[in-house]
Design goal:
This protein has ten helices and ten strands. By secondary structure, the protein is of the alpha/beta class. Keywords: ATP-binding, Nucleotide-binding, Transport.
């Protein structure tokens, strides 16, 4: 099995408390990896470190065997990595279409507003909006979308990045079943396209349905790792995560 992302003895502390405690994990290439654990187990902290939104105190992070000693969010494009957030981040006063176009063209928002979009960019943006079922809303401001539609638009922006590694931080949280099915289809399509996906999720049914590999964290440490069905049947996981 080839790994696209690895950590070795990764540590992140807040006020002397290890949110991530000497964590060593492997993320397989071109698969969907689930990242689960109780609240406060360090999942989002790990995603923040991997994407450069929080520096790590010690340890090593490797992307395709290349160590990144200091990760800056604006460098992620070079390494082919992108992410979503628990709290959706959009340009609310821009149209749905422009929220996609700004990713497809100039990365700096100020310059993107004044860049002329080619027919190619426009077609790519419209194709993405059709994939996420927001084409009919393309001229609406992002601020006017429902919660589920905002989640879909954020995922559309991820698709526009065309990254090799996608970190999803609870993309299904608070959504109706209809929207969940749409996002499940998008995640599976990413795998079919050869992308590597990391999925932070609490819903075990979704984990079983989508994931090829599973990592369980508890108190910042690795609790178990492997095939989802095998990992979820381990006693230590049942006791720590499922409360059984």
């Amino acid at each position: 099995m080839k790994y696209i992302l690895e950590t070795k003895n990764l540590v992140k502390s807040f006020g002397g408390v290890h949110a991530v405690d000497h964590l060593s994990i492997n993320i397989p290439e071109k698969m969907i990896t689930g990242l689960v654990g109780p609240n406060g187990s360090g999942k989002t902290t790990l995603i923040n470190m991997l994407s450069g939104f929080s520096p790590h105190n010690s340890g090593e992070i490797f992307f395709s065997d290349v160590e990144r000693k200091k990760i800056m969010p604006w460098e992620n494009q070079v390494y082919g990595i992108t992410r979503t957030f628990q709290q959706v981040r959009l340009f609310d006063q821009m149209s749905v279409l422009d929220n996609i176009l700004v990713i497809l063209t100039e990365r700096a928002p100020f310059y993107a507003l004044f860049e002329r979009h080619s027919g190619y960019h426009l077609k790519c943006a419209e194709d993405i909006l059709k994939k996420i079922d927001l084409y009919e809303k393309r001229f609406h401001n992002a601020a006017d979308l429902s919660y589920g539609q905002r989640k879909l638009l954020e995922i559309g922006r991820v698709l526009a990045m065309d990254a090799n590694i996608i970190l999803f931080d609870e993309p299904f949280a608070g959504l109706f079943p209809e929207v969940i099915k749409k996002i499940e289809k998008i995640v599976l399509n990413l795998k079919q396209e050869g992308k590597s996906v990391v999925l932070v999720e609490h819903n075990m049914a979704i984990i079983r349905k989508l994931c090829d590999h599973l990592i369980v964290m508890d108190a910042g440490k690795l609790l178990a790792e492997g095939h989802p069905e095998k990992v979820l049947s381990e006693k230590i996981v049942l006791e720590a995560y499922l409360g059984e």
